[in-house]
Amino acid sequence: MSKLKVKKVIIFKHGVSYYILEGNLKGSDNFELEFKIDEMDDVLKSLFVLDTSEKGYISSISYDAALDTSQLLKSIMLNIPDINSFTSLISQIKGAQVNVTISGNKSLSGRIMGIEESEKIVKTEKVIDKILIILQDDDVISKHSFDEIKSVDILNEEIKKDLKFFLNTVIAGKRKDAKKILINCESGGKDDVERNIFVSYIRESPIWKTSYRLIMSVEQATEEKCLLSGWSLIENTTNQDWEDIEVTLVAGMPVSFKYEFYRPIFIQRPVIKPPKVLSVQPTEIEEGLETERYEDFAMAEAEARPAAKMMKRAGVMASRPLPAPSGTAGLGTMRSVMSDEAVFDKFKAQTNIQTKDLGELFEYNISNPVSIKRKQSALVPILTEVIKAKRVLLYNKNEYGKNPNVCLEITNNTNLTLERGPVTIIYDDNLAGEAIIPFLNKDDTRLLNYAVEQAVIINHEVKSENKNIHKVSFGGGNATEYYFTNQMTTYKINNKTNDEKVLYLDHPKSYDYKFIEKPIEPEETPNYWRFKLTLKPKAVINFNLKEQREISSSYYLWNWSKEDFMRKTTFYVKQKFIDANIETQLKEIAESVQHFNELKDKREKLYQERDMMTDEQNRLRDNISVLGEDNQSVTLKERYVKKLNDQENTYETISFELKTLDKEITKLNKTIDNQMNKLKA
Question: Which long-range contacts (CB under 8 A, 24 or more apart) does 327-332 make?
């Protein structure tokens, strides 16, 4: 059996790797691969095998079934126990044709009849001797002690196959989580020609992880650059050693999924009973579709989207280097024996990588051969570049306390796409801190915060005030008054160091607020205004910002009385918010509204009077209904009836007045609406 060797591994970020293996062989032979049960689905759905020779070919690919050992062994006639295996085997193949070799190299052929046991005394101990009984080809029955038997050759091919299958299944079952794939290769008649076999597949694997080192000297800090060294953590979780293989790391998220391919799937089929009467019936056969009349819909090719820039590239500002935090241990004095250029050349020499932009994916192809033993991991260098970097302070009142963060503002001016990962920052051979590099496209700029500057203290104060009304507008029956709300923020900044600092001050954006006073122009980020300040040594400054927002209050004109109209109109005229035309319209509306309210009050009083009269009439009718026919009752009835007649006349008069008022109020309501709709300022 020949052996395949791993030649290349392509590791993705979504939990799978693509493996390429190669092997050489002569003649007909096979290759064996071993996988875990959980890996078989991915392997089987993606397995590709190619014999690159002219005549050779792959005859078949077989693999262990997805069944337990006990289930597999049910399909054969043999069941050999761990003890007395030979005796059990002979007993189970009774009648099989065999060749038996006994002591003295004598050979005999025949059929197995069975086994007998006899007792004999060996050195005063009783021993059971097992005897094989054979019906020889000359029809003679012979007996042979197991001690005499040297070998037994089973001539029945089916029994041989079952025996081999039993033993292979039992040994494979010892590794319950392992399944084998057997690739059978045929030479095609060219047995003396060495052929190359190519195999590829995908399998589940850990994602590759990236970490960085940002190394900056004092001289590089003044030049606003640093050395970026990137390393990838690669894990070989397979059962094969990787020896001098090619490794490619792919950043991106291609579609990937698990598909149940390995285990057998049975579906329940319907049971159809045969008909009792079989007869042939004419059927109507559908006419074929005329496919030439239908055209496939062709989708237009989408335009490639440019890489989104999440932040504007920051301008360059000079700054003196900040000292490393006190108490950090030195990481070596590289620059005491090597210059910055020599350090870069040394790192660059160990990094040999080619990159490829695949649109939605980005590929790091590690050119230097990689060797990793099975079940081990390794750190592999994937990047050594000098990038733009400068040290700044960053303060955000919503996220930090009184001290700003120390940051490196880096720009990816390389030709690579940088994956997200942790970064260790080394300044002047000292540990300066740690940060996270986000996903960076080419020319993207990001701030990495890695320490706190305790020698710079920033406090902030916020005050707000509402200003007087400065404008009024009319529309939809409303008067809207506008006024400004001012918000003043003061940042009190104290630089206690003897060094000049560059401070990025992130001021939160407030809804609808606009700056009316600001010392310098800011840059804009999605949620902040970023002001870039240079702090002189021992400087104590106030950085004042003033923002303004316009707020409005609306009033429904129908709710105003004549007094409200006159008071508001006088104020608007005095403030010169309205002209004489609007003033006249407002006064006319005030008169109309007053008249409208008077009519409504009058109508309300009439409704109340009529309701009281209705109650009185009901009372009189109740009294009349209980009176008798005596003289006194008759006199009272006449009096009540006269009063009812008088009230009925008054009731009719009130009802007429109410109808007249309703018409007048409706008409006046439309008039006022028209007046208000014409009112615009």
Answer: 328/430, 328/431, 328/432, 329/430, 329/431, 330/429, 330/430, 331/426, 331/429, 331/430, 331/431, 332/429
Q: What tokens were used for 195?
A: 């052929």
Asked if the model's pLDDT at residue 291 lies above 50, the reply is no
- Report the amino acid identity of residue 506: D
Strands 106-122 and 125-136: antiparallel
**What pLDDT band is residue 295 in, cutting at 50, 70 and 90?**
very low
Residue type, 187: S
What secondary structure, in 3-state letters, does 476-489 show? CCEEEEEEEEEEEE
**What integer pLDDT is reported at residue 292 of this predicted model?**
39
d(CA 251, CA 14): 9
Region at 290 (left for phi over 0; alpha for psi -120 to 50; beta for the rest): beta
**Burial 175-209, CB ≥16 within 10 A → b, else e:** eeeebebebebbbbeeeeeebebebbbbbbbeebb
Read off the pLDDT of each residue in 209-228 and give the average, rounded to a whole number: 90
Q: Which residue has the tokens 């392992």?
A: 178
Q: What is the DSSP string of 103-114?
A: TTTEEEEEEEEE
Which tokens belong to 285?
Answer: 């056969």
Of 118, 94, 97, give the one whose Cα is nearest residue 108. 97
Q: What value does the mean pLDDT take over residues 518-540?
A: 92
Structure tokens at 497: 């160091």
Alpha-carbon Rg of the chain, whole angstroms? 50
End-to-end alpha carbon distance in the chain: 96
DSSP 2: B
% of residues, the chain, pLDDT over 70: 84
The arithmetic mean of pLDDT across residues 536-559, rounded, is 93
Task: State residue 56 phi and psi, 5-degree precision.
Answer: -70, 155
Question: 364 has which bridge partners?
Answer: 249, 355
Weakest-pLDDT range from 82-86, 94-98, 489-493: 82-86
Do 530 and 522 touch, CB atoms closer than 8 A? yes
Name the residue type at position 326. S
For 369, the 3-state DSSP assignment is strand
DSSP string covering 205-240, please?
A: -PPPEEEEEEEE-HHHHHHTEEEEEEEEEEEE-SSS
Q: What's the average model confidence in pLDDT over 107-133?
A: 84
Asked if 413 contacts 388 with a C-beta cutoff of 8 angstroms, the reply is yes
- pLDDT of 351: 57
d(CA 336, CA 333): 5
The one-letter code for the residue type at 419 is: E
Q: Report CA 313 to chain centroid distance, whole Å.
A: 27
**Long-range Cβ contact pairs of 334-341 (< 8 A, separation 24 or more):** 334/429, 335/217, 335/429, 340/217, 340/219, 340/220, 340/227
CA distance 201 to 20: 7
pLDDT exceeds 60 at position 296: no
Q: What is the pLDDT of residue 68?
A: 59
Rounded Cα distance, 508 and 492, in Å: 16
Give counts: helices (H), strands (E), the chain. Answer: 9, 29
- Are 24 and 195 spatial neighbours (Cβ–Cβ below 8 Å)? yes
Opening angle at CA 385, ends 381 and 386, nearest 5: 145
In the Cβ-directed half-sphere of 405, how many Cα atoms lie within 13 Å?
A: 19
214 and 55 Cβ atoms separated by less than 8 Å = no
Residue 281: how many CB atoms within 10 A of its CB?
A: 4
For the beta carbon of residue 326, count every other beta carbon within 10 angstroms: 7
Dihedrals phi, psi of 76, to nearest 5 degrees: -120, 165
- Residue 548 pairs in a beta bridge with 486, 514
> Using an 8 Å Cβ cutoff, are 547 and 510 in contact?
yes
Amino acid identity, residue 1? M
